[in-house]
Structures are given as structure tokens and as C-alpha cells.
Amino acid sequence: MSEEYIISLAFRTAMISFVFNIAVALYGIFSRPSLIKKLLCLIIFTDSINIFAIFIGFRYIPGLYPSPPILSDIPTTVKDIQTFVTVSVDPLPQALVLTAIVIGLASSMFLISLILMYYRHYGTTDIHVSEEVEKYEEDIE
Amino acid sequence: MNRKDIALGLSLAFMVLAISIVISIEGIGPIIPIDIRGLGASYLWNSYNPWNTTLTSFSLNAVTAIIWDYRGLDTFYETAVLFASIVAILMVLRGYIEVKGLGVKGLSDITKTATKIILPLIVTYGFATAVHGQITPGGGFQGGAIAVVASTLIIAVLSIEYIYELGISSSKLMLLRVFGFLGIIATSISLAIIGMLIGVDTYIFQNMAKENSLSMPINFLDTTLAGSIFIFNLFEFIIVFSGLTFALIMLTIREEELRNIDTVVEVYE
């Protein structure tokens, strides 16, 4: 087996494991009653997709190691930039993932504050218990 | 185990199987390509390229160049989303009052002293990561997120009272945040306004000179500044640090501070 085939196999296994991770996180979001567990699963889901996106930007260079997209030679010559383009990984997925991380952080911060208020109102983070409490309150009225 | 759980498990298993088959036959493209995609290659060519002055941004870090120069409007709206989420937290927890002197002591003296030694180092490291975003790995958001570790440590180890003693309150942090946001807006439209005044065609979010002669500062002494990227990173550091510290203070509220939250709701209704 060639080196390229082994590396390709390893990367496919890693990507499939991310898909499996996404499925487990989706199960948690749909099926767990606790809001905290739903939030944790949502964060795992976001991070799995982010790593998946970064993997798409990775590259395989025979005989060389891929380098991060940062030029390290000052003063720069044309040859430096040519080498940089040959060995560097794709910077676009990394930039998009950074944006996605910030927006995920903003939305999860808001969700945490909502869950906090939910807990203060019902005394629990379980969605089924709160439905029962609402029915009970309606019965009293 | 009811019927809903079985259906959910089966459909998720089917999803994993389907996507795995697509990945293993390279249905979404080559898994690890040898050649880079054309768009990524053009960003790598132009992010620091003194021979192509109309397309370059003079930033050695290609990711930062994409974030604040080539896709600057994206990042502006991303910052706006972060701002909006803080406003939403403020709306959910309205009626919140900071109460000082509740007698919260924090952890032991040894932990407190060690933390006080580490705190300035963490903030300095975060600031250095932010202002060197154009030459080394890093940037405004990453630096701000590192510096927020300091305020998290203060809240966890020295208690939230120490933050109030330092003179940091949520209203001051909100002001700092608005200042950073206005700074980003001012930086993005400054060249457009100057160009309008002296009669040169310029663009919003312009960094380097295009068909005109106006450009942000390229170098400071012998270090590349990458023009507006440095200024944006500085303001983004302020925004992320103040915003996340604000959110931390809001989310570590005590019962006494939430006393009149119900009465405030009644007043508004």
C-alpha cells in the first residue's frame, strides 16, 4: 500500500467519525429532555461541523508537510510567495470557521441566559416537567 | 423505548451510512487534494504581494487578510451579531441591579495570590496576540478570547466582588463595547469620507490603494501593519474582551441582584 492511500484512508475514517459525532449530537438535541444537555449537544454539533469544514481545506503534498497559511519571510521575494502557495493549506475554510465560531458563541451565550431564566421560573431544566407545571397552573385558574 | 425513539435512531443511522458512503467514494470532492482550490490559491498569492499593489493587503497572515480585508463586511456583521446577543442577554435579564458587599469571599489565600500573579500575564498575552494578528497566528477575536480567561479566573477564584472593586461595572463595559463598535465603523468609512472631501474615488472597507492613491498605513518602523487590519484587530479585541466579560458578569448574578426583576417586568407591561 502506498503512503498516499494510507493517509487518504485515515482521513476518510476521521471524516466519517465526525459524521457519527454529528448523529450522536442530533440524537441528544432531539431526544434528551434536559435543556442543558440539549445545549451541550448543540455545541458538540457546531464544533463537529467546524472541524469537518477545516478538514476540507487540508491538502496532501507528497514529500512535504503542509504549512499554516502564514508567510514567514521578510523581506519577501517572488520565490518565497511561490513556495508559500505550494505548501500552504487553504485559508478560506479557516476564515469562515472563525466567523462560525463567533456566531455560535453569541447564540449559545443567549441560550444560556434563556435557560437560566427558565430554571428560575420552573425550578428545573426539564421540558416535560414544565409542561406538567403549566397544565397544573391552568387547572388552578 | 417508544416508537419515536426507534424512528429517530434508525433515521440517524441511515444518515450516517449515507454520508459515509458519499465520503468514501469521494462524492463531495477529493478528501485530501494535492492541488489547492483556485480561490484559496488566489488569496495565498495576494495576501502579501508587494508586486500586485491593487489586490494585496500586506498581511503575512492570510486568514486575517481574508477576515478583515477581502471579506470585511462579513466580519462586520459577525461583530454585529455578537453585539446583538449581548443586547438580547440584557433584555432577558432586565431589572438586574449590581449589589456590592454581599460577603462573598472566594477561594483560599494561596490560590488568590497565585491568580493575582498570573492575571497581568494573561491580559498581556491576549493583547499581544491581538496586535500581532497580521504577522503571527492570532487576531482580534482570538486575543480577546484569551484575555477573557483573566476575568473568568477573577470571578471563579477572587469572587465577583473583586471585579466591582477594580472599578469594572456592566455599564462601563457596555460603553467600552459601543466605543469599539463605533471605532470599527469609523475605520471602515474613514477613507471613503477623506476621498469624498479631496475628490478621489474610494470605497467603504478600503485598505490598500486601488485605482486611487489613498491607502491605510502599510508599515510601522520595520513591521508590517497591514493598514486597517491592525486597527480592526485592536477594536475587535476591545469588543470581545468587554462583551464576554459583560456576559460573564450577567450570567453570574446572585439572588439579591435579581430581586426586582419581576416588578420591572410589570412596569414595562
UniProtKB/TrEMBL annotation, chain A:
<feature type="transmembrane region" description="Helical">
    <location>
        <begin position="6"/>
        <end position="27"/>
    </location>
</feature>
<dbReference type="InterPro" id="IPR039428">
    <property type="entry name" value="NUOK/Mnh_C1-like"/>
</dbReference>
<feature type="transmembrane region" description="Helical">
    <location>
        <begin position="39"/>
        <end position="61"/>
    </location>
</feature>
<keyword id="KW-0812">Transmembrane</keyword>
<protein>
    <submittedName>
        <fullName>Na+/H+ antiporter subunit C</fullName>
    </submittedName>
</protein>
<feature type="transmembrane region" description="Helical">
    <location>
        <begin position="95"/>
        <end position="119"/>
    </location>
</feature>
<keyword id="KW-1133">Transmembrane helix</keyword>
<keyword id="KW-0472">Membrane</keyword>
<dbReference type="Pfam" id="PF00420">
    <property type="entry name" value="Oxidored_q2"/>
</dbReference>
<dbReference type="InterPro" id="IPR050601">
    <property type="entry name" value="CPA3_antiporter_subunitC"/>
</dbReference>
<keyword id="KW-1003">Cell membrane</keyword>
<dbReference type="GO" id="GO:0005886">
    <property type="term" value="C:plasma membrane"/>
</dbReference>
UniProtKB/TrEMBL annotation, chain B:
<feature type="transmembrane region" description="Helical">
    <location>
        <begin position="141"/>
        <end position="164"/>
    </location>
</feature>
<protein>
    <submittedName>
        <fullName>Sodium:proton antiporter</fullName>
    </submittedName>
</protein>
<dbReference type="GO" id="GO:0005886">
    <property type="term" value="C:plasma membrane"/>
</dbReference>
<feature type="transmembrane region" description="Helical">
    <location>
        <begin position="176"/>
        <end position="205"/>
    </location>
</feature>
<feature type="domain" description="Na+/H+ antiporter MnhB subunit-related protein">
    <location>
        <begin position="110"/>
        <end position="245"/>
    </location>
</feature>
<feature type="transmembrane region" description="Helical">
    <location>
        <begin position="225"/>
        <end position="251"/>
    </location>
</feature>
<feature type="transmembrane region" description="Helical">
    <location>
        <begin position="80"/>
        <end position="97"/>
    </location>
</feature>
<dbReference type="Pfam" id="PF04039">
    <property type="entry name" value="MnhB"/>
</dbReference>
<feature type="transmembrane region" description="Helical">
    <location>
        <begin position="6"/>
        <end position="29"/>
    </location>
</feature>
<keyword id="KW-1003">Cell membrane</keyword>
<keyword id="KW-1133">Transmembrane helix</keyword>
<keyword id="KW-0812">Transmembrane</keyword>
<feature type="transmembrane region" description="Helical">
    <location>
        <begin position="117"/>
        <end position="135"/>
    </location>
</feature>
<dbReference type="InterPro" id="IPR007182">
    <property type="entry name" value="MnhB"/>
</dbReference>
<dbReference type="InterPro" id="IPR050622">
    <property type="entry name" value="CPA3_antiporter_subunitB"/>
</dbReference>
<keyword id="KW-0472">Membrane</keyword>
